[in-house]
Amino acid sequence: MLTGVLHMRSTFRFLALLAVAATLFLSGCSSVGSAMKASPSLANAAGLADIPMPYLEERYVNEDSRFIDVNGYRIHYRDQGEGETIILLHGIFSSLQTWDAWVAELSRSHRVIALDMPGFGMTGGPENLDDFDEDNIVNTFAKFVEHLDLENFTLAGNSFGGYVAARYAAQYGNRVDRLILVDPLGYPQETPLLMNLGTAFPFNFLGNYVQPPLIVTLSLRNAYGDPRRMQDKDVYRYVHMAQRPGAKPIYMKTLEMVEERTENEAPLPFYRIAAPTLLMWGKDDSWVPVELATHWLNDLSHARLVTYEGVGHMPMEEAPDETLRDVRRFLTNGLAVFPEPAGDIDEGVAQAN
């Protein structure tokens, strides 16, 4: 009897998610053109083929690119500018180019290091997929810091990169002078429908072999507060990285890892973070809602929150000028220029205009 009920629930969940997928497809037909343009072949347009590495290297490796072997990964990173060091960690399915606007501005006065996180971008995944998990990623980043002989720096991370940055700051507090968390993942939450779709059978199985550009494009639209701000170069980048050789199983493993993280009720060590922390959040983030900032503010002893109206999950892409203004204020004056939140999260935030 119980088995039958569970089977019915599983079937209902699958049908519901299938209906969501169909709705998203019909509502996102304007994304078809971008998805097709990003595909170098018909097989890529169908999500069936990998994009050869020379094609990707021509587009995403430049004169500022460097590679270093760390913990079984060949990490791709860019090291630009001089001065105090800032390290930038992107979120899942993204790459270091998500920070291009920040790098262009901040490298005028700072040394800025942006890396393709383990599993993503031109770094790619480990030979053994079983090695790819939260601890492996945090440990790899820690070894990356050691390899570059970095002692003190400002650390910034978006989404899952924000979670990695926070875990690193909690463990290596003597190295992190300032912390910037942009729509960080970490605390228990409801996962987005598109993520649920990716972890439901048979999509979680098929995703190891097929990554349709249309799905990638629709996910990106859903992550933006205003999809009209999406630039073709960013759409192409997300599509290309999803079809990098070896990316498909890594992406599906990532979805499982994120789902496990969002369902994990175990206490997090973020109360150990001593560095002044600026929380930056898109108010229209449907992936990691701004209400979750309450947990961070409760656990971090020195933190402020600034939000961005009409902006989604990646404010540094969607609102580069506004976010850079606040980063500059934080780097120059610390947290003193950001008012303390009081009361309800929607009433007590410092909102960017």
TrEMBL record:
<dbReference type="InterPro" id="IPR000073">
    <property type="entry name" value="AB_hydrolase_1"/>
</dbReference>
<protein>
    <submittedName>
        <fullName>Alpha/beta hydrolase</fullName>
    </submittedName>
</protein>
<dbReference type="InterPro" id="IPR029058">
    <property type="entry name" value="AB_hydrolase_fold"/>
</dbReference>
<keyword id="KW-0378">Hydrolase</keyword>
<feature type="domain" description="AB hydrolase-1">
    <location>
        <begin position="85"/>
        <end position="320"/>
    </location>
</feature>
<dbReference type="Pfam" id="PF00561">
    <property type="entry name" value="Abhydrolase_1"/>
</dbReference>
<dbReference type="GO" id="GO:0016787">
    <property type="term" value="F:hydrolase activity"/>
</dbReference>
